[in-house]
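Working notes for the structural subgroup meeting. M.R. asked for a predicted model of this chain before we commit to crystallization trials. I am recording the input and output together here so anyone reviewing the notebook later can reproduce the run.

Input as submitted:
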Amino acid sequence: MGDIKFRDQALPLHSAIQVDSKPYTLTGAVTVALRNFPSLRVARARIARQDSNINLQRTAYLPQLNLIAQELRTTLNNINGAIFPQTLDVIPVQTGVPTHSSTFKSVFADNFGANFSWELYDFGLRHANVLLARTDRSTAMAAYRLTQLDVANAAAQAYLETVAARAMIRAQQATVRRMEAWQLVVHTKVDRGLKPGVDSARADADLAQARIGLINTERSTELAQVDLAETMGIAGSFVDVEEGPWEKRPVKHFTAPPIEVANHPLAILRGTDVKRADAQVHVWERTWYPKLWFHSGLWGRGSGDNSDPRVVAGGVVPQTANWIAGFSLSFPVFDVFSIKAQKHMAVREEQAERANYDLAIQILLQKDARARVMLDNARRIADETEVLLISARENELKALERYRVGLNNIVEVAEAEEILERAEMESAVAEVRVWEAILDTGYAQGDLKPFLALASLAEGRK
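Returned structure, recorded in token form:
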């Protein structure tokens, strides 16, 4: 299948995606996500749409020129009277001398004309509409910036989750190997009659449980890789990651800078929503004003009525011409009631958007505070896992020795193995969780550059 063409862009189909077999770096995965993810293309298209809307609103300043040409075959029956303006224009407007008879005989007629009109002054309504269009564009741009932040964060988060899942596979594989060695020891002792047969059953169960844990961990890793590919905009592809850089502690004394909440993309977006609501109020304030127009027209008409000696070509071409020019002032007086009601609605909408802005500030401050707490705790946990792993390994070694010499039973060894398994799992992901906490602080502050700079340094020192 070929590419889907959209104007001057070619959007590649899913089947055309080529995936590099080389593992992605974290910064590389984020770059791919920012280049490929569909929601960013949607956001860019909306910005372009609002650019077009600004141009559209500016066209309201241009004059109007309307042309008309009509060649007709019509009867000449005419009567005194009037016709109300028609919604559907069912009855054509007829001019001429009233007649005292009715006939279906017809003649040719023609109408040619040009009308030039220009709205000279509207007390700022067109300018208000242009300002409203510009705030729409600002809102679209703010939404694009927030989408960029979300896409980059999702890709980085999915990358680290994949790294953590891969690390847990290694820890679970180590547990399986220990359980296999432990099973061999237990079966040897049972076969020699040194231990009861129930010990071999327990060792077999522990090994099966470890293998099931490995299968579950492998499943979680594969799903994490699927999720990572989706966040990068290449869903359905296999994505490999680099594990080495994330097993090391990042800058140990990294401190998140104070949050500048007003500069967060979410706060900027909510601020543009407030400005848009304010611009809409301004539009309604400028709606109930007179409008000054300049009008001019030039037209010619012809009729095949033989009673008129000026007939030209049987009424096919015009026989009379007229022009008109002047100014008009229009003022929809009784629209004040509907306009006032709609302005009140716009004012209430502005108040709601201001409340949304305040709510966004509250959420951002909360996220920043939570991210700082999580970062501090992730560091402390990573420090403690070193002690936990050393102690768990020593405990397991002593429990095995005591079992071999007959000083304890298999339950104590199983407990020691469980403690060591949990310790290895905690140790495998402890440093990754620190990286995730740093990522969360960047996302809470609306700027991933400090995190990506640390990640780039880590990838360079691997």
